Predict the 3D structure of the following.
Amino acid sequence: MSPTLVTVLTLVSGISWTIVYIEMIRRGFQDRTFGMPLFALAFNIAWEFMFAFLVAPGLSLQRIVNITWFLLDAVIVYTYFRYGRRDFPQAWQRYFLPWSLLAFGIGFLIIYLMHYEFENYWGAIYSAFAQNLMMSILFIAMLVRRDNVEGQSMYIALFKWLGTLAPTIQFYGQTGSHLALALGIGCFVYDVIYVGMLYVKFRELKLNPFTHRPVEQT
C-alpha cells in the first residue's frame, strides 16, 4: 500500500473519530447524559492512553491522532461520571463508582497485556479492532436499553462507521491480517445495523434524524 494512501486513510479515520467524539461531547452536555457505553469507553480511553503516551515513539501522524482522541475522550469520561449515575439501575446506585472504576481498571489491564503479549504492532492493531467491535455491539445494546436517542446522533453513527472502515482497509492492505479484516468486517456490519436502527428510532420519535428537531406533521 502506498504511503500516500496510508496517510489519506489515517486522516479519514482520525478526522471521522474526532467528529464522533466532539458530537458525543456536544450531545452529552445538551442531553445531560453520556454518549459512549461504559465498557466501550473504558477500553477506548485505555487504548488511546497506551498508544499516545506509553508506547508510540516519536511524533508520528498516528500518535498525534491518538493524543487528540485521548483528550476528547477524557471529556466523554467526564460526562459519564457527571451524568452516568442516573443511567445506572436505581437499586444499585451505591455501586456506580466502584463498578465504573473497575471497568476502567480492567480495560487498561487488558489493553496493556495485549500490547506485550503480541509482538511489534500487532497488539495495537488487534486490541483496537477488538474493542471497536465490542463498541459497535454495545451501541446497539444502549439504543435498545434506553429506547431513545439521548446522547446519540446520526453524525456519531455515520462517522463511527467511516472511522473504522478506513483503518480496516489500511491495516489489511498493509499487513494482510485476516483476523484484522474479520474484526473490521464485524464492525462494519454492526455499525450499519446501528445506523439503520438509530434512523428508525428517530422516525419513530418523530424527530429529524440530523437535527433532533420535531418533524412537522402535515
In short: The chain has a mean pLDDT of 94.
